[in-house]
Specification:
binds NADP nicotinamide-adenine-dinucleotide phosphate; 6-stranded parallel β-sheet; 279 residues; 10 helices; 40% helix; single chain
Length: 279
């Protein structure tokens, strides 16, 4: 029977540890404050933002909430970010993506002070990760590393295959696995003979955004599988990019969906907020 990597339990552990750290910081007179900006009323974004605020409350992080109408101009949003950059009482700035089409996301990300870039999306944060300097790391891939480490799965020397090369998951995931001394291969939609490549993996991280796409024919027996994908199927049931039922008896460890990678993203965002007091 495969080990089920319990993201709920591990994310709770991390949040409990952060709660203690935040209390210690408070005792020394340092508050942690995250500014959360949401533009428009996308229901999924509202849920994500709500969960982030709840996590802040649990840990003792102050959250400042900016709920802006769709009609806001790009310039107005950039001005707000500039004001938050200048405020000494704000440690982290998070702009919930996606943004309405008339606002350039890259410009928004570039405007956030890298010292407050708790999402880890600023090119300076990405650059620091790629050259091995300390900086903010994109929360979902950072969460995957914690899942592996805290489940006693070593990365060093392992064949690691990352399926997907997005800026927020695949690419930083590959860099993090490399930082942990894995031997890393990245696959994408132009990869030839995908199965041949994924079957080499001791650790396979799947982030392709296609429900139940990966069955056991893509996986070496006994591999560790991390499923980043999250979808609702035709029965409104949550599922990942991996066909869990098909592969579970074939692998040595796997993250379920829900309850695997998902809860880790917010835990790592909270971790970045606490680290931002040192930035
Ligand atoms: P994305 O930006 O759509 O990127 C998907 C990647 O998969 C691309 O690099 C694409 O290749 C590759 N790909 C697509 N179809 C493929 C195929 N048939 N064969 C090989 N490669 C293929 O997605 P993302 O933002 O990284 O997200 C991936 C999944 O993770 C989604 O289900 C998303 O909902 C989920 N997600 C979850 C969390 C969480 O907190 N759990 C956070 C973020 C994302 P090309 O580059 O060649 O197009």
């Amino acid at each position: 029977m495969a080990l089920l990597i319990d993201g709920k339990k591990i994310s709770t552990e991390i949040k409990e540890e952060l709660k203690v750290k935040v209390a210690e910081l408070k005792a020394k007179g340092t508050e942690v404050t995250l500014a959360v900006i949401q533009v428009g009323h996308d229901p999924a974004s509202t849920v994500y933002v709500g969960n982030k605020k709840k996590a802040c409350e649990f840990i003792g992080i102050n959250s400042l909430s900016y709920e802006l109408e769709d009609s806001i101009t790009e310039e107005e949003l950039l001005q707000l970010i500039q004001q938050l950059n200048e405020r000494e009482d704000v440690n982290g700035i998070l702009v919930q993506l996606p943004l309405p089409k008339h606002i350039n996301e890259d410009k928004v990300i570039m405007t956030i002070d890298p010292k407050k870039d708790v999402d880890g999306f600023h090119p300076q944060s990405v650059g620091k990760l790629s050259i091995g300097q300390k900086g903010f790391v994109s929360c979902t891939p950072a969460g995957v590393i914690q899942l592996l480490k805290r489940s006693g799965i070593s990365i060093e020397g392992k064949e690691c295959v990352v399926l997907g090369r997005s800026n927020i998951v695949g690419k930083p995931m590959a860099l993090l696995l490399l930082r942990e001394n894995g031997t890393v291969t990245i696959c994408h939609s132009k990869t030839k003979d995908l199965k041949e490549v994924t079957k080499r993996a001791d650790i396979l991280v799947v982030a392709i955004g296609k429900p139940r796409f990966i069955g056991k024919e893509y996986i070496k027996e006994g591999a560790v599988v991390i499923d980043v994908g999250i979808h609702r199927d035709e029965n409104n049931k949550l599922c990942g990019d991996v066909d869990f039922d098909d592969v579970v008896d074939h692998v040595s460890a796997i993250t379920p969906v829900p309850g695997g990678v998902g809860p880790m993203t917010i835990a790592m965002l909270m971790n970045n907020c606490v680290e931002s007091t040192e930035a």
